[in-house]
Amino acid sequence: MDLIDDGPEGNTPEFSVSELSGAVKRVIEGEFGFVRVRGEVGRVSRPRSGHVYLDLKDDRSVISGVMWKGVAARLQTQPEEGMEVIATGRLTTFPGQSKYQIVIEDIRPAGAGALMAMLEKRKAMLQAEGLFAPERKKRLPYLPEIIGVVTSPSGAVIRDILHRLRERFPRKVLIWPVAVQGAKCAPEVARAIEGFNRLTPGGALPRPDLLIVARGGGSVEDLWGFNEEVVARAAAASEIPLISAVGHETDTTLIDFVSDRRAPTPTAAAELAVPVRMELIGAVRDFGGRMERAMSQRLEVRGQRLRDLSRALPRPEELLDGPRQRLDLQGDRLPQALSRSVERRRLHLSETAGSLRPGVLTRAIAVEQRRLEDRAARLGPALARLVNARREALGRRADRLSPRQITREIAVGQERLAGLTRRLDEAMTARQGEKRRKLDALMRLHETLGYRETLRRGYAVVRGDGHLVTTKAAAEGATGLEIEFADGTLKLGGRSSPRKSAKPEPPEQGSLF
Question: Structure pTM?
Answer without folding.
Answer: 0.45
